[in-house]
Design a protein that fits this description.
The protein has about 110 residues and is of the alpha+beta class. About 35% of the residues lie in helices and about 20% in strands. A four-stranded antiparallel β-sheet has the order 1-2-4-3, covered by helices on one side.
Amino acid sequence: MELAKKKCIPCESGVPPLTIEQVQNYLKNVKGWKLNNNYIEKEYRFKTYLEGLNFVYAVGELAEDEGHHPDMFLGYKKLRIILTTHAIEGLSENDFILATKIDQIKS
């Protein structure tokens, strides 16, 4: 799966979320992301608070470019990112595309 080469596409209500089998398959392609109910999440750690804040800005720019926005919770030297597709109240391919691209920023 070449998720990094894909672009998020708008998702409208009425489209079914991914099945648990599809989610498990996608999870194999995103290292460190964990399934929790109808979203995936990952925690990143940083040497300084400012490093984490700069990462938040980079993810924000990516989210704007992709048109798919995560929930982000910045704490002292750590950041928790949650991805879900709110319009369908579950996970879509967009969540895994964005997860892949977020990980590329961090590496």
